[in-house]
Amino acid sequence: MTRAPNMPPPIEEAWPAICLVRPQMGENIGAAARAMLNFGLVSMRLVAPRDRWPNPKAEIVAVGADKVLGPARVEWRIEDALSDATLVVAATARPRGLEKPVWGARETALKLRSAIAAGEKPVVMFGPEAAGLETDEVARADAIMTLPVNPGFASLNLANAVSIFAYAYAEARQEKDLPPWFLDLQDPPATQAEFEALMAHLEGELERGRFYHPPDKAPVMKRNIRTALLRARFTDQEVKTLRGVIKALTIGRGGRKLGDPY
Amino acid sequence: MTRAPNMPPPIEEAWPAICLVRPQMGENIGAAARAMLNFGLVSMRLVAPRDRWPNPKAEIVAVGADKVLGPARVEWRIEDALSDATLVVAATARPRGLEKPVWGARETALKLRSAIAAGEKPVVMFGPEAAGLETDEVARADAIMTLPVNPGFASLNLANAVSIFAYAYAEARQEKDLPPWFLDLQDPPATQAEFEALMAHLEGELERGRFYHPPDKAPVMKRNIRTALLRARFTDQEVKTLRGVIKALTIGRGGRKLGDPY
User: Fold this and answer.
1) Closest-CA residue in chain A for B66?
2) Which of A128, B61, B168, B210 is spaced 20 to 30 A from A200 at the CA atom?
3) Mind listing the pLDDT tens digit of every residue in chain B (262 residues)?
4) Nearest residue of A to residue B64 by CA position?
5) Euclidean distance between CA atoms A174 and A7, whole angstroms
6) Which positions ≥6 away from A144 have C-beta within 8 Å?
């Protein structure tokens, strides 16, 4: 495509990435890719799309946005799709009593601009069309993004939700006075993968210590601890330190088997 | 549908209305209706939809938003769809050098909230999928709404564009401090139909006076006069006065034929 010399250059920003969790319809994936590129976002991640991938319907709808759809990262597990993220925002209409900050789209966009300037790698994740994100998925997020939807008709089309965030992000690009990012860390923030390894380490040791009682409460107990620790937004160095803490606390406790990973 | 007693009531606001001009695909009309209701807007107008109406594809996609799609007003001519509007905003990516205010979506939303509180009846119009609004259509608007799209990939899906405006409008609903509306008229503002009649009167008399010279410049000359007068945002009383002015200026000029409407 020929471009006039006085035309502003195209915008293609790798962060924030958009992660569609268990998306169902290829059309919606393609439409989300288009909406992303409309507002200069190019990193798409997909967690366990319902239909086979590559998806011809997504390609038809995304036409022109191949540079988003083509290199989209596809993972089976949400933790793999978020592994390199240092900051995760979950788009959900229903904050489920999790102790997390709740932001509007504009607020999210402004905070993410500041966060990126401070070295963060944010991912905004959207749930599947019908049901939205599950509580355990939302629990992985540092913050929740909600839209001021009509209580009488709240179920938003997936691509529309993505386009509203992408629009808000493009508006935030034009904002000269960004609020300072809430944590101006000296060290780089931990990635989700590092945080996940910390949680696996801790949860493994807690299981050995018979912490989860009664056992059917384990998922809720795990989620609450995750939510509390996630809020601290550890640096990678702090995660290493905390793993040392867990090791020190558990040394000599016994019960560890040969070949245990920690 | 049963509603919990502590649930906030549904939102269904008649203004601003959304007008889709020459929309092509039924799916997009249905998706726009859904996006409107998602954010509490219920008045839809369609100008010359490409396919037959009612449109089964629109109905499938709009499912749940029947209260928007069902009563949608369908007109052949744009002036009929805008006849009762007192304020028209054209969504277009390309302001064409028309002397009109240009607003972002958030700015548009805030201004329309104020305008409605001041008694205005605003319509936001969106062009067809491929080509957008034509210059003569944009010329009917009091202001232009643009979105900060990627210069490298600017063609926004119609329903996404509608949902972005509707979202921005819902955010503006939560805004406590609205800017005062720029014109706090004592008298009610003229509707587009009243303004159209004034323009027809004036243009008819100008033609009789051989004002449009050379004749092939007539469309541009008409558009420029329309744009200039539209900016004054006349009240209905002022429109009546101006029609009297035109009559007074043309009395005795001759050249009027028996049966002329003015």
Assistant:
1) A153
2) A128
3) 445 567 789 999 999 999 999 999 999 999 999 999 999 999 999 999 999 999 999 999 998 999 999 999 999 999 999 999 999 999 997 666 677 888 999 999 999 999 998 889 999 999 999 889 999 999 899 999 999 999 999 889 999 999 999 999 999 999 888 877 765 556 778 899 999 999 999 999 888 888 888 989 899 888 888 888 887 788 888 898 888 888 888 877 765 554 555 5
4) A153
5) 17
6) A89, A90, A91, A92, A95, A98, A100, A101, A102, A103, A138
From the list A8, A157, A170, the residue facing B31 with the nearest CB is A157
Q: Residue B150 is nearest to which of A10, A151, A152, comparing CB atoms? A: A10
Which residues in B lie closer than 8 A to residue A35 (C-beta atoms)?
156-157, 160
Q: Which residue of B has its CA nearest to A155?
A: B38
Chain B residues with CB under 8 Å of A40 CB are: 150, 152
Q: ω into residue B9 within 30 of 0, thus cis? A: no
B40, A164: Cβ pair inside 8 Å? no
Q: Is the peptide bond before B71 cis (omega within 30 degrees of 0)?
A: no
Q: What is the ipTM score, two decimals?
A: 0.78
Residue recorded with tokens 């939809």: B49
Whether A25 contacts chain B with CB within 8 A? no
Q: Which of B106, B150, B174 faces A38 most closely, judged by CB atoms?
A: B150
Q: What share of chain A is helix, strand, coil (3-state, %, to 5)?
A: 40, 10, 45
Residue pair A30/A57 in contact (Cβ under 8 Å)? The answer is yes
pTM of the model as a whole: 0.83
Residue pair A28/A159 in contact by the 8 Å Cβ criterion = yes
Q: Which of B93, B99, B96 is nearest to B226 (CA)?
A: B99
Contact between B160 and A31 using a beta-carbon 8 Å cutoff? yes
Q: Are the Cβ atoms of B35 and A157 closer than 8 angstroms?
A: yes
Which of A50, A105, A44, A94 is closest to A69 using CA atoms?
A44
Distance separating alpha carbons of residues B165 and B159, to the nearest angstrom: 10
Candidates A63, A60, A1; CA nearest to A37 is A63
- The reply to whether A149 touches chain B by the CB within 8 Å rule is yes
Whether a cis peptide bond, with omega within 30° of 0, leads into A16 is yes
Token pair of B206 as six digits? 């100008």
Are the C-beta atoms of residues B21 and B133 closer than 8 Å to each other?
Answer: yes
Q: Tokens at residue A115, please?
A: 């966060």
User: Is residue A11 a contact partner of residue A67, using CB atoms and an 8 Å limit?
Assistant: no
Residue of A167, A169, A173 to mutate when probing chain B, most B C-beta within 10 A? A167
For residue B25, the SS3 value is: coil
